[in-house]
Design a protein that fits this description.
The complex is a heterodimer.
Chain A: E1 3-7, E2 10-12, E3 18-25, E4 34-39, E5 45-51, E6 57-59, E7 67-72, E8 77-82, E9 91-98, E10 107-110, E11 114-118
Parallel strand pairs in A: 2-11
Antiparallel strand pairs in A: 1-3, 3-8, 4-5, 4-9, 5-6, 7-8, 9-10, 9-11
Chain B: E1 4-7, E2 10-13, E3 19-25, E4 33-38, E5 45-49, E6 53-54, E7 62-67, E8 70-75, E9 85-90, E10 97-98, E11 102-106
Parallel strand pairs in B: 2-11
Antiparallel strand pairs in B: 1-3, 3-8, 4-5, 4-9, 5-6, 7-8, 9-10, 9-11
Classes of the chains: A mainly beta, B mainly beta.
């Protein structure tokens, strides 16, 4: 059974940093397209970043240059390093796996989310 | 980035009603469109992909159609468990984007 468990959220001051983790089970992170999707309080969904099975990474313009997606194959875990955080980065961050291991762009599996609050 | 526009942003309906939600892309995306359902406090759930392919386990009262720039999600006979927010998402571009969402509320 595919499971995704996010952790690492919390309260951080503007300009600060935070690293989110997504521990996966039931499949191999490095063999799949993995993304982070966020949702600001009371707002819609926003795709943040993806890492392909081959290692290529892409980012939404709103986070490019500030966020870095990565994975640890030995721990079967996905990460999101978030630097220079802003109030508008406040959101629930979801880890999501592509529907197909070959990569498709559709989010077939989701974690429960972790809340990041950027505030002084 | 490709912009996805959903309409309406919210609607009120009764159990048993037929509901249609529209999603428009700012440029042609072929059939690279997915629909998700999200309930309060929960992660989104995939309903439909490739514009009209029903995800495994999703009730057949959900259907999707369209290609190019205009797409629809239809719920043929609204059930109590269908009251939720629905999002479209394009995956034509590697820069993935969602629509703003449509909240389906009880009339």
């Amino acid at each position: 059974e595919v499971q995704l468990v996010e952790s690492g959220g919390g309260l951080v001051q503007p300009g600060g940093s935070l690293r989110l983790s997504c521990a996966a089970s039931g499949f191999t992170v490095s063999s799949n397209y993995m993304s982070w999707v966020r949702q600001a309080p009371g707002k819609g969904l926003e795709w943040v970043s993806v890492i392909y099975s081959g290692g290529s990474t892409y980012y939404a313009d709103s986070v490019k240059g500030r966020f870095t997606i990565s994975r640890d194959n030995s721990k079967n875990t996905l990460y999101l390093q978030m630097n220079s955080l802003r109030a508008e980065d406040t959101a629930v961050y979801y880890c999501a796996r592509d529907l197909y291991s070959s990569g498709y762009g559709v989010f077939g599996y989701w974690g429960q989310g972790t809340l990041v609050t950027v505030s002084s | 980035a490709i912009r996805m526009t959903q309409s309406p942003s919210s609607l009120s309906a009764s159990t048993g009603d037929r509901v249609t939600i529209t999603c428009r892309a700012s440029q042609g995306i072929s059939s690279y469109l997915a629909w998700y359902q999200q309930k309060p406090g929960k992660a989104p759930k995939l309903l439909i992909y490739a514009a009209s392919t029903l995800q495994s386990g999703v009730p057949s009262r959900f259907s999707g159609s369209g290609s190019g720039t205009d797409f629809t999600l239809t719920i043929s006979c609204l059930q109590s468990e269908d009251f939720a927010t629905y999002y479209c998402q394009q995956y034509y571009s590697y820069l993935l984007t969602f629509g703003g969402g449509t909240k389906v509320e009880i009339k």
